[in-house]
Write a structure and sequence with these properties.
Strands 1-2-3-4-7-9-8 form a seven-stranded mixed β-sheet, with helices on both faces. Strands 5-6 form a two-stranded antiparallel ribbon. The chain is an alpha/beta fold and about 300 residues long. It contains eleven helices and nine strands.
C-alpha cells in the first residue's frame, strides 16, 4: 500500500470488514496469499500488499494500534504535513516559491471533513489515519490532491535558485480549476498539475482516462488554466506537465503530443526534477533577458486562490 489517502485499507486488501474476528482475518489472509502468490500465477505486487496488510493487522496488538490510527506507514504520517516548503535541512539555496501549494484542497478537506463528522464530534486531529480511512471517497480525494501538490512543490524547491514557482494560481474561473503550479526554469516555462487518482493512469487521444479520473479531463483542464494565465500575463508556456505518483505510471515519462504547439507530458513524481533540469522535449526554450522579463510579467499578473 502506498499510503495515499486513496489506497485500500489493510482490511480492504485482505477482503474483510474492519469488524472481522481474528479467525476470519486469518482465514482471509491465507486465502489472499494463495490467490496472489507469484508461484501460483498471482500478481507479485498484490502479494506484497497482502503481506504488508497482514503486518498491520495480523497481530492483535498491531491491529489495535492500526485501528487507533497509531499503526501507520511513513506516508500516512505525512498526511498531517501542511507546509511542504519547510526550511531546508542543508544550506543550499532553494527555488523561489510563491503561493501555498495544496492550500485550497487542504482547506476544503478540513471544511468538509468536519461537516461529515457532524457537530459535536471529537475531531482533534482531522488527519488521523482512522479518520481519513473512514472518510467518504470525495474527501479522501481532496486530501490526496493536496498531498500531491505539496510533494511537487518540495521537488521544485530542491532544484535551487535558478527556478521560480507559483502555486495555487487563480485562473479566473472556479477555484477548483486553478493552475496547480507554474514553474519558470532555465529549460522553459511550464504549467503543471499534480494529481493522485489512486489507480494506474491510462491514456486515450491525448487525455488521461480511468474509473476515478472520469468525468475530469486533466489535460484539457491544465491547458485551459495555462491559456488563462498566458493571456493575463502575456507570456508563452513552453510545455505542460502532469505529475502523478510513481506507482501510477508504467513509464517514467509519457508524451501525449502537443496542444496548440505546446508539448504535454505525464511524468512520475520521481523523475520530475530531472525533467525540469533537462527540459520537456520540444518545449520552447527561454534564455537571456527573456527569462527576467517573463518572471516580472508573472509576478505582476499572478493571483492566488
Amino acid at each position: 500500500m502506498s499510503g495515499s489517502p486513496l489506497s485500500a485499507s489493510a482490511y480492504e486488501v485482505l477482503g474483510v470488514a474492519p469488524t472481522a474476528t481474528d479467525e476470519e482475518l486469518r482465514r482471509a489472509y491465507r486465502l489472499r496469499l494463495r490467490q496472489t502468490h507469484p508461484d501460483t500465477g498471482g500478481d507479485a505486487a498484490a502479494f506484497i500488499r497482502v503481506r504488508h496488510a497482514w503486518g498491520l493487522v495480523g497481530d492483535p496488538v498491531a491491529r489495535a494500534a492500526y485501528d487507533r490510527g497509531q499503526g501507520v506507514s511513513p506516508a500516512e504520517a505525512e498526511w498531517r504535513v501542511a507546509t511542504p516548503a519547510a526550511p531546508a535541512r542543508d544550506s543550499r539555496p532553494r527555488a523561489r516559491s510563491y503561493g501555498h501549494p495544496g492550500g485550497w484542497h487542504r482547506a476544503r478537506y478540513l471544511e468538509l471533513v468536519r461537516e461529515w463528522a457532524g457537530r459535536g464530534a471529537d475531531l482533534r486531529d482531522p488527519y488521523a489515519p482512522e479518520i481519513v480511512r473512514a472518510a467518504p471517497l470525495e474527501l479522501r480525494e481532496l486530501l490526496a490532491q493536496a498531498l500531491a501538490e505539496e510533494a511537487t512543490a518540495r521537488t521544485v524547491a530542491e532544484l535551487g535558485m535558478g527556478y521560480t514557482a507559483w502555486h495555487d494560481v487563480a485562473t479566473g474561473g472556479r477555484p477548483e480549476h486553478k493552475l496547480d503550479h507554474i514553474v519558470l526554469s532555465p529549460s522553459g516555462l511550464y504549467g503543471m498539475s499534480s494529481s493522485d487518482f489512486g489507480e494506474e493512469a491510462r491514456f486515450r487521444r491525448g487525455e488521461i482516462i480511468g474509473e476515478r479520473v472520469a468525468p475530469r479531463a486533466p489535460v484539457a483542464t491544465l491547458m485551459s488554466g495555462m491559456r488563462a494565465v498566458a493571456r493575463e500575463a502575456k507570456v508563452r508556456f513552453g510545455g505542460a506537465i502532469i505529475v502523478l505518483p510513481d506507482e501510477d505510471l508504467m513509464q517514467p515519462i509519457n508524451a501525449l503530443g502537443s496542444v496548440r504547439g505546446v508539448p504535454v507530458v505525464v511524468v512520475r513524481r520521481g523523475v520530475l526534477g530531472h525533467l525540469l533540469r533537462t527540459g520537456v522535449p520540444g518545449a520552447r526554450d527561454i534564455g537571456g533577458n527573456e527569462l527576467f522579463d517573463v518572471r516580472t510579467r508573472l509576478q505582476q499578473a499572478v493571483r492566488f486562490v
